[in-house]
Amino acid sequence: MSRDAILGRVREALSVKTDPHVREVAEKSSHSLPVLANGPDGRTQAVKEFLPFVGDSLEDHIAAFKILSDKLQTEFIVVPTIEAARQAIEQMREQHQWERIGIHDHELVQSCVDHLKVEFTNTSSNYSTSELEKCDVGISGCDALIAQTASALVTNHSAGGRALSVLPPHHVVVAESSQMVTTMADGFAIIREKHNEKWPSFISFITGPSRTADIERILVLGAHGPKKLTIIMISA
Amino acid sequence: MVNVLERLGHQVDYPEGQTCCGQPAFNSGYFPEAKKVADHFLKTFADADLIAVPSGSCTAMIRKFYPELYQDSPQSEVVSELSGRVFEFTELLVNHLDVTDVGAKLEGTATYHDGCHGLRELGIQDAPRKLLENVQGLTLVEMDEAQSCCGFGGTFAIKFPQISTAMTQVKLGSAAQTEADYLISGDPSCLMQIGGYFSREKSPIQCLHIAEVLDQQ
Amino acid sequence: MSQSTNPFTQFQTDADRVTADDDRRRFLRTSLRGYQSTRTATQNRFLDYESARIAASDAKWEAIENLDIYLAQFADKLEARGATVHWCNDSEEARNAILEIIKKHDAKSVIKSKCMTTEEIHLNQLLEKEGFEVVESDLGEFIVQLRDEAPYHFVFPAMHLKKEEINTLFQEKLKSINTNDPEELTMVAREVLRQKYLSADIGISGANFGVAETGMISITENEGNARLTTALPKVHISLMGIEKIIPRLEDLALLLPILATAGTGQHLTCYNSQLGGPRQEDESDGPIEMHVVLLDNHRTRLLADPEQRDALRCIRCGACLNVCPIFKNVGGHTYGTTYQGPIGSVITPHLRGLKDWKHLSHSSSLCGACTETCPVKIDLHHHLLRNRRNAAGKGQGGIAERLLMLGFTVVMRRPWLYRLAGSLGKVGHVLTKPIHGTRIDPFYAWKKTRDLDDPAKQSFRQYWRARK
Ligand code: SF4
Questions:
Q1: A224, A230, C25, C28: which is deepest, by most CB within 10 A?
Q2: Rounded Cα–Cα distance for residues B205 and B172 (Å)
């Protein structure tokens, strides 16, 4: 079997230890590395200690998230209450003349849209892709907001499947401030805990609206995914 | 280099038996051949306290690559000991003799080209600039391609002349933008490449080795 | 690309052409200068980039040095989630595995998101020959596919093209409107590809990482095309080299920002998705089948080299190309390889044979800019040197070079000969004056574009003696 053949070759190759000289040369640096814990904790620690600093308090995190969002052209709105979120969404509906909205079974999402007089496509059970494609916007929840990268962390559970957050031309995420965490590693920890190792088949860090710079390295938004990303955070 | 060191009160000897560090063979992949030449180097320089080298490239060969050539050989200790005594000219002055002003004078503006070996194998970047800043009458202007390779690369320059020349062309463009009178470097081989091309292209920029500059009174 | 079959001749011919094209070279330089400045700014935001880099480098070492364990774990976990894992020794096995899946589903059209490994196994050619419609969905890949070209750069596939050229291409092939505006051009492609997504039966993607701990692949992208490729078609096939494995999910939290920073200068790319299996019972969409095709194709040969297995840690960020003076002056197509630039020059001899590809290791000034920039600290330029050594050791340099090196050693070990050679050189220089600048001048290759100073009248040794 090819599996055995390949693993066999890998094992045989590894039976000769890596030339210590090469490893040393590759690693040598004038720089002494702070001591890291072994295993996953070490990497988690590295993310916290070496990657950009975004403070420890919620205020700091929100500020950092805002700065990066501006750069990414993500619309990041902080509102005090669910009621305010409902109003913000209603305003967007008017402004962008939404007629069909993609949603899913998600408490926060539902309570933000149940007053809207539009057609809905719900992606929580079997739905038609072509119908979702006709939606003006997809509104979803998320598992976490990542301060260090200004990302929304989603899975098929928190965001109504794989397509709702990418197929319509506008993606709106609703979240609560309690969902703000510092690093991507913290985000993984949340999913780890929530799903207790029964992983969703799709996890994604969404960081800004879809973009490309494939033509002369000039930035264009909305290459294949949404041209517009709005993150509404309800502060408790 | 000898003049400068003597002016600073050091005793300099030039072992007449010296030839080459062996890098041309080494860089072409002929390691055993390079090692034979290195053997000769080790013999010739066995007694020196400090070895001053007017080239980042040769220094890198001796300090960084000799240990690789001699790993697992009985001489490996001699080699690692020797590699601690070899210094490129500017790092010797600045980092070991603590000299940044050698009392040199030269009128004009200059731009500095970092030789790749000196820069990336040895980490020499500030030393030559400190020395040049203290040359009376000389203004140092950085070019944006200061750290890009000049295109020499030993046999590369002969085997792939078109690429090698294209690289020097970029260097010339960048140097010309600074409107410098001189392009200074710590590596004779870079200067041969850059100087050769600049002169062919009739560029008014004069190419000088940093030791030549520091020797100007 | 030239039609020559000999990679070395093809390299030289193409290098001649591109180095003579000042305009294109300037274009490349300008766009890479933009990359350099955004990257520097992003890197400066790190609390400690150098440490982050070492930690990232470490994660990949751990994976490669325990590849047997992690690879098996990766496959087992994925299969437990309902995916099918195909182990393929070489390109042909991988091509056949993929073809079989497509045939089994009676598929007509295939949509692809960016995957260099499919270039490596020449998948598109086979599928098209078999009569399937295959569409590249990454904008850059789509453009080069329309031009019937290979990607120019494995991260920026169409970086060599100007917007005017893309305009002409789209008008010709897509009957699009006449516009040089990158935004309008992008929208043209978006429209065309949207339709393809909705009708495609099969989605083929690559993978940037394979997470052993959880059995997931991780895909990094900006456009959203990989997300659509893995969400809409009923079958998802992912092709990946066996070296893409990393130990744990948390490693991504470090590697993804590092990859983005080094790759494009972004702090993180737009979508970083982890996919573990097909649609699960409690999920509402996604493919009904997921196939992961694991490819060896001589990677184990590189792994068996204790000096250079280092190169398998590459995360394909493309940074080494972006800083490489050779790449900037000869461009991507000249390499004639799937993976261009320094990393390509290091690994291609291992994947495709040293004899035919050693010239890539010689076509470098060993300046070390690649090693300096590589986020996972691969000893790139020294590996080029090691390839040279291996080629010389096998006598692949040719007899002339061997003799030259022998002569060099003989002379350099004997000071008197060295001095004699110096004097002879001077005499020779005078004697050959009449032929200087002609093709039979021994220094012709040098002097065609560069001057060579006349040798100094007095050698340093003579000066030294006089001085004493
Ligand atoms: S070798 Fe290093 S710099 Fe080059 S593509 Fe791979 S990871 Fe990036």
A1: A224
A2: 9
C64 DSSP assignment: H
C14 near C244, Cβ under 8 Å? no
Atom 2 in ligand 1: residue holding the nearest Cα: C374
Task: Please report, for chain B, the start and end positions of each structural domain, with discontinuous segments joined by +.
Answer: 2-93, 100-215
CA distance A85 to chain C (A): 25
Domain boundaries, chain C: 46-297, 317-393, 398-467
Residue C409 is predicted with a pLDDT of 84
Predicted-complex ipTM score: 0.95
Determine phi and psi for C291, rounding to 5 degrees: -120, 130
CA distance C184 to chain A (A): 9
Beta carbons of B83 and B43 less than 8 angstroms apart: no
pLDDT at C2 over 50: no
Query: What is residue A30's predicted lDDT score, i.e. its pLDDT?
Result: 47
Q: How many domains, chain A?
A: 2
Q: Is C437 left (phi over 0), alpha (psi -120 to 50) or beta?
A: left
A134 is a domain residue: yes
- pTM of the complete model: 0.94
Please report whether residue A51 resides in a domain. Answer: no
Residues A186 and A222 in one domain: yes
Question: What is the distance between the alpha carbons of residues B29 and B26, in angstroms, rounded to a whole number?
Answer: 5
Q: Phi and psi for A233 in degrees, rounded to 5? A: -110, 125
Report the C-alpha gap between C31 and A163 in whole angstroms. 34
**Subunits close to A (at least 3 CB pairs below 8 A):** B, C
Q: What is the domain-level CATH number for residue A146?
A: 3.40.50.10420
CATH 3.40.1130 applies to domain B100-215: no
Among residues C120, C467, A148, A95, the alpha carbon closest in space to that of B16 is found at C467
Pocket of ligand 1 (CB under 6 A): C 262, 314-320, 343, 373-376, 378, 380
| A90 and A122 share one domain | yes
Backbone angles phi, psi at C133, to 5 degrees: -90, 125
Does the beta-carbon distance from A21 to B71 stay under 8 Å? yes
C182 touches chain A (CB under 8 A): yes
Judge whether C183 and A216 are in contact, CB under 8 Å. Answer: no
The answer on A119 and A175 residing in a single domain is yes
- Ranked by mean pLDDT, the top range of B61-75, B203-217, C260-274 is C260-274
Pocket probe mutation, ligand 1, options C373, C378, C383, max atoms within 8 Å of Cβ? C378
Domain that holds residue A15: 3-37
Put simply, the answer to whether C325 touches B170 (Cβ < 8 Å) is: yes
A182 found inside a domain: yes
Domain C46-297 sits in which CATH superfamily? Answer: NagB/RpiA/CoA transferase-like (3.40.50.10420)
Rounded-to-integer distance, Cα A137 and Cα B110, Å:
60
Please determine, for residue A39, whether its predicted confidence score (pLDDT) is greater than 70.
no
Concatenate the DSSP letters of all residues of B164-215 into one string. HHHHHHHHHHHHHHTT-SEEEES-HHHHHHHHHHHHHTT--PEEEEHHHHHT
Q: Using alpha carbons only, give the angle B18, B31, C334 rounded to the nearest 5 degrees.
A: 115
CA of B143 to nearest chain C CA: how many angstroms apart?
A: 14
Q: Are residues A80 and A185 in the same domain?
A: yes
CA of C322 to the centre of ligand 1 (A): 10
Establish if A75 belongs to a structural domain.
yes
